[in-house]
Write a structure and sequence with these properties.
alpha/beta; five-stranded parallel β-sheet; 6 helices; about 40% helix; globular
Length: about 170
């Protein structure tokens, strides 16, 4: 069940009740919101009876690995209850395409912390962009190669982890 907190819809206060319902199906809740709020949300997120997937690397402004919200994300990720989508490197970047170089330290830190709890995504059709300015999806795969230079780790992120998270059969 996806909670998109950047527009009206399901509210964070709805999450515990809905998480209890989806946990019975072996599902997870997915969250996209202003990542700066993550430290305040953590007690509730950690108490949920199902896994939590954070969209777009937590959607935290800027790319400072020492940012308190990013540090909270790392703690939550390390708990084993959280999954993070390695997507949307353009959120919070000032360097821009093709490699969003200022996002590299955060991407690498996530890979270093818990490569077994990361999944990759491209956020197609890239809603924040006009049609003539959308990111090239192949370049976004190059970004992953910057963050996870080891081929086995990339396979884990691209193949093995989604199999676990989404309970795919072999």
């Amino acid at each position: 069940m996806r909670f998109f907190l950047l527009k009206p819809g399901l509210a964070l206060d709805d999450m515990p009740r809905i998480a209890k319902l989806v946990a019975d199906f072996g599902w997870h809740v997915q969250l996209q919101g202003k990542g700066e709020n993550l430290p305040d949300w953590l007690p509730m997120l950690e108490s949920l009876p199902c896994p939590v997937v954070l969209d777009h690397m937590g959607r935290i402004e800027g790319n400072d690995v020492d940012h308190p919200a990013f540090q909270a994300l790392l703690r939550f990720l390390d708990s084993g209850k959280c999954w993070v989508k390695l997507s949307g490197p353009y959120y919070g970047t000032s360097d821009g395409p093709p490699l969003y170089r200022d996002a590299v330290p955060r991407g690498r830190k996530l890979v270093e912390t818990r490569p077994d709890r990361l999944v990759w995504a491209i956020n197609w059709p890239h809603p924040p962009f006009d049609d003539d300015a959308k990111p090239e999806d192949a370049y976004l795969l190059d970004v992953l190669a910057e963050w996870a230079p080891d081929e086995e780790v990339r396979k884990q992120i691209l193949v093995d982890n989604p199999r676990v998270l989404y309970d795919f059969d072999d």
